[in-house]
Model the fold of this input.
Amino acid sequence: MIHRRALLRTSGVAAAGALGAALSASAAVAEPSRPGGTPAPADTDPTEGVTRTLLQEHPSPAEGWEAVQTLVQIPRHKESGRHSHPGVEVGYIVRGDVLMEFDDRPPLRLRTGDPFFIPSGVIHNARNVGRVTTMMLSTYVVDETEPLVTTY
Done:
């Protein structure tokens, strides 16, 4: 489980500059390689390098709920990991290509500029299937007493 406060402490970047800095970075990402040009062995952790940066959080007009916004970055060939949220997620693909996989419905292919909506409690996994680090802007309206992310 990931708590909202832990997002900010472990993100390693300032929330205010995260989106701008990431957008100005080069879209091309080199494939890791060893001397001689052979590809490096695949990582064993499919979620390695995934970051969630807390951008803002505010009380919701509905008592007991809050609005939370994050910038999620998923490197090439990586995924968010199966997880759910204690409220809805309204998102937008800022950059990249994602296969959004669900436990209870067919997967959804999302590309740069696509919006998405994930109902409360739905288990899902965002898999980067593109050529660049995927950036997703996710806004949640969640139960303030629950962790923002529950992993499975």
In short: The longest helix spans residues 15-24. The radius of gyration is 16 Å. Helices lie at 4-10, 15-24.
